[in-house]
From TrEMBL:
InterPro entries linked to this entry: Carb-bd-like_fold
Organism of provenance: Oceanospirillum sediminis
Keywords: Carboxypeptidase, Hydrolase, Protease
One MF term in the entry's GO annotations: carbohydrate binding
Protein known as: Carboxypeptidase regulatory-like domain-containing protein
Length: 855
């Protein structure tokens, strides 16, 4: 509990004590008002007086006896060294206005948090006002880390260090940035109105310094799934490489004409802009995509597509992972699992939809795109590298029939010198039986590129092949003479949990009349049985003028609950030595008390993730490297010891103790205008009476799993405490049972504004859910892929689930509560009913195989 006393010139009152962690208010004596059912009511006029008209509200820290407060699970608030120890208070009142011009009640929600562990005073203030359908909130993002002079790569490499003071036994934090003197406050204004047929929402959000201001407008007919959505953004940055960006349209629909942001149409363009089209952009049965993300160096990344392990790699020193993959049409659920050297684990989720969307024979469409790059990062657009400021793209599509269409593109862009360059090209996409093929070609005044590829995906044997001859697209800008000719062929065999892909690549590089032929061969065997996962890889590069290089490796992983083990056996580059490493991570529910006490104080009994890491490595320089690591599920702590035995120049011995302390971030923006995240804590349990009290006889939710923004977050512990470590603005939770993930709450989600001491009162019963699955085909039995399916509740007509059919027409919709539903196929012009499945407690898995009678 945090104890604070509020003193006011209005009257000398006894302190008001708030127990924010238990979620209730212990009122010693009323402040400016009166008490009713343990809720404090304050008149508006009294609040105004308290805020400085003419009185003021000031904070008086209390110095308490630690031994006495420890018995009551309280925190100590001290004035030692003019620094406040982890402390906070939350106030939640309902204000009854005395002003005549206010006709309705105004709900007031104010929270005041103070955190100054190893820092100077930080007093972010959060205010929220509601009046009828309008909401105005001012939210803190703390203080901005001043890192403008530090490059992103350098800043990533810097660590927040903690060293042990042997004399006092205390840990000190070294922070590589200073704090600005001005806090950043968020404002949020929202107005919404809804009737039986129409909905309307206006929302504005930003801060008082003008960074990241944005407005949203959302309106539409409830019976029409298409909504008009408009968004503008204005960003301010001190970085010369990132000039201010004017507002742009996010998405707007007028009949058959739809706009989309460039980030949606070209997710790796590196710029912003707008796309205006009469048809959807995507027109491929399959497409190559780059799955890119950031993670600490020396971590390992595993790529899963639709729950199947596809590839893995070690994070580079730049802290970036990138997987170049081919995705088939339909919804592709992409998961990247990241594993740290000491048992850390993180999950990044992506959803990519590849839609064929062939134009019918004789039909045509046109699209226009405008792109404005905002940084010096190269933009990727149709396999071209563009270091320009503006780009215009006009696409003309024509339906050829026979499951094929043609797209012609005219690209005009201005390079850094101001010269206007034009690129002409197009692609033809087709689908023959179960084989997808594509021809693509682009031409400029100085370069040309073409490629042809075909692909077959599915269970059993699948294959892909392609050829390309292209000049490097920087030739358009820099007049280099680099040319790459490439051919590849791949075979993939998958049966149940065994996958054996073999890929052969040949690349020929030409540069200033000097060419080198490079062949590469990748052989991977992946095997999964229960909790075991084995991947054996042999990657070879055969060079024309230099020595060939082969790198075999094998990784064996075992996962069961929180226990993780990994065995790596890999040949080192250009040597006959092999590197072996064994990693074990055994988590425990409770952190060591002394670790918790150093930082989280009140949260010490809520600490999660005690880990024991054992690492064994063998190389030519070190025969033994033993690490015992205590680390939590969060990045708050990483405390360890190392034991090294070196035999390079004789026997050696080294023993060291290392540790790091990462303070919780309170939000804000970096110099690159990237919003910082900070951890959030909470307690979730059944509150049947919804009275805001935590009684000992109320049942706590324990060992439950939550889906948070599409990914699986940490479990709640035995006391119902959950922790979200990378929250930006709010946390969306859906509860499922730990033992059976198909036991889910009928409540879809709850949005909790992120505050480190936020307590959520939830009464969520858990029920059995099932699935609706099947295969969609036409009247001749051919599977229909990339068809947009939606499942609506029969009674309320609310949408329960949606997805796109896979390449073989298969679809599955999980976590469907018992009830009666209607399965629709949604097109741009209509919604066609396909089936009426009914999920019951007796039949939780419903299989339907609808047939679409095409006209």
């Amino acid at each position: 509990m945090c104890l604070f006393a509020f003193n006011s010139a209005l009257a000398e009152e006894e302190p008001v004590i708030f127990d924010v962690y238990a979620g209730r208010y212990l009122l010693a004596q009323s402040l400016f008002g009166y008490q009713r059912d343990e809720i404090l009511f304050i008149p508006v006029s009294a609040l105004a007086d308290a805020l400085g008209i003419p009185y003021h509200l000031e904070l008086a820290p209390l110095t308490l006896d630690l031994e006495k407060t420890a018995a009551n699970n309280m925190m100590q608030l001290s004035e030692a060294d003019n620094k406040l120890k982890l402390s906070g208070v939350g106030i939640k009142e309902t204000i009854f206005p005395e002003n005549a011009w206010l006709k309705d009640y105004v709900e007031f929600d104010a929270e005041l948090f103070i955190q100054a562990e190893y820092l100077e005073k930080i007093w972010p203030l959060s205010l929220e006002f509601k009046y009828r359908d309008m909401l105005l909130s001012i939210e803190p993002r703390g203080f901005i880390p001043k890192i403008e002079a530090i490059k992103r790569d350098e800043y990533r490499k810097q660590k927040l260090k903690k060293r042990a003071d042997r004399k006092s036994g205390r840990f000190h934090a070294g922070i590589p940035y200073s704090l600005l003197s001005a806090p950043i406050l968020d404002w949020n204004w929202r107005y919404s109105s809804a009737s039986n047929s129409h909905s309307f929402l206006v929302q504005g959000r930003g801060d008082l310094l003008g960074m990241g201001n944005r407005w949203n407008l959302l309106s539409g007919n409830k019976s029409d799934p298409r909504l008009t959505y408009w968004k503008s953004a204005y960003q301010v940055s001190d970085d010369d490489a990132q000039p201010p960006l004017a507002g742009y349209i996010k998405s707007l629909s007028f009949g058959d004409i739809t706009t989309q942001s460039i980030s949606d149409v070209f997710p790796y363009s590196g710029g912003t802009g707008v796309n205006l089209s009469t048809f959807r952009r995507s027109g491929n049965i399959f497409d190559k995509r780059a799955i890119v993300g950031q993670a600490p160096d020396k971590w390992e990344a595993e790529l899963y597509i639709n729950q199947q392990l596809i590839d893995f790699q070690t994070i580079s020193s730049e802290g970036i992972y990138q997987f170049d993959v081919e995705l088939v049409s339909g919804m592709n659920q992409i998961t990247v699992r990241l594993y740290g050297p000491y048992g850390e684990e993180r999950v990044d989720n992506h959803s990519v939809v590849i839609t064929p969307n062939y134009l019918k024979k004789g039909e045509w469409g046109i699209a226009y795109s405008y792109i404005k790059t905002t940084s010096s990062i190269s933009s990727m657009l149709y396999d071209q590298q563009i270091d320009s400021t503006d780009a215009h793209l006009v696409t003309l599509g024509l339906g050829l029939g026979l499951d094929a269409d043609f797209r012609f593109n005219l690209i005009s862009r201005q390079d850094e010198s101001g010269e206007l360059r034009t690129i002409l090209g197009g692609d033809i996409n087709g689908y023959l039986s179960d084989i997808a093929w594509r021809f693509r070609g682009y031409f400029t005044d100085t370069a040309a590129t073409y490629s042809f590829s075909f692909d077959k995906k599915g269970d059993g044997l699948s294959y892909s092949s392609g050829v390309s001859d292209r000049s490097q697209w920087p030739v358009v800008l820099r007049d280099d003479k680099d040319v790459i000719r490439e051919a590849y062929a791949g075979l993939n065999y998958s049966l149940n949990d065994i996958t054996i892909p073999v890929t052969i690549n040949n690349r020929v590089f030409f540069k200033e009349a000097i060419s080198e032929d490079i062949w590469s061969l990748d052989q991977v065997v992946r095997f999964r049985l229960g909790h075991w996962n084995l991947a054996v890889n042999n990657s070879c590069d055969f060079f024309e003028y230099t020595e060939s290089l082969c790198t075999p490796s094998a990784i064996l992983r075992y996962r069961l609950g929180g226990f993780k083990a990994r065995l790596l056996h890999q040949k080192e580059d250009k040597s006959d030595d092999y590197q072996q490493s064994l990693d074990l991570f055994i988590p425990h529910e409770i952190w060591p008390e002394w670790i918790c006490k150093r930082y989280v104080e009140e949260y010490k009994k809520y600490c999660e993730g005690f880990g024991l890491g054992v690492n064994y490595q063998s190389s030519d320089e070190s025969l033994l490297d033993l690490r015992l690591i205590w680390s939590g599920k969060s990045n708050h702590f990483s405390v360890g010891s190392e034991l090294n035995w070196n035999r390079k120049d004789g026997a050696g011995f080294n023993l060291s103790v290392k540790g790091s302390l990462l303070p919780a971030k309170r939000g804000g923006y970096t110099a690159n205008n990237e919003k910082l995240s900070y951890p959030a804590f909470g307690r979730i349990y059944h509150d049947e009476n919804n009275n805001g009290t935590l009684d000992t006889d109320e049942k706590l939710i324990s060992k439950k799993r939550f889906y948070q923004r599409g990914s699986i977050s940490d479990f709640t512990n035995a006391e119902g405490v959950w922790m979200d470590l990378k929250s930006l603005s709010q946390v969306s939770l859906v509860m499922t049972d730990f033992e059976d993930p198909y036991r889910i709450s009928p409540v879809n989600s709850i949005d909790i504004p992120v505050r480190p001491e936020r307590v959520a009162y939830i009464d969520w019963p858990v029920i059995d859910t099932g699935s609706v699955e099947g295969m969609l085909s036409d009247s001749q039995g051919r599977p229909l892929s990339a068809v947009h399916l939606v499942l609506l509740d029969k009674e309320s007509a609310d949408q329960v689930a949606e997805m796109y059919t896979a390449y073989d027409g298969f679809f599955v919709m999980d976590f469907i509560p018992p009830g009666q539903y209607i399965l629709y196929m949604r097109t741009e012009k209509e919604q066609i009913e396909l089936a009426r499945p009914e999920v019951s407690h007796e039949n939780l898995w419903v299989v339907v195989n609808p047939v679409y009678q095409s006209g």
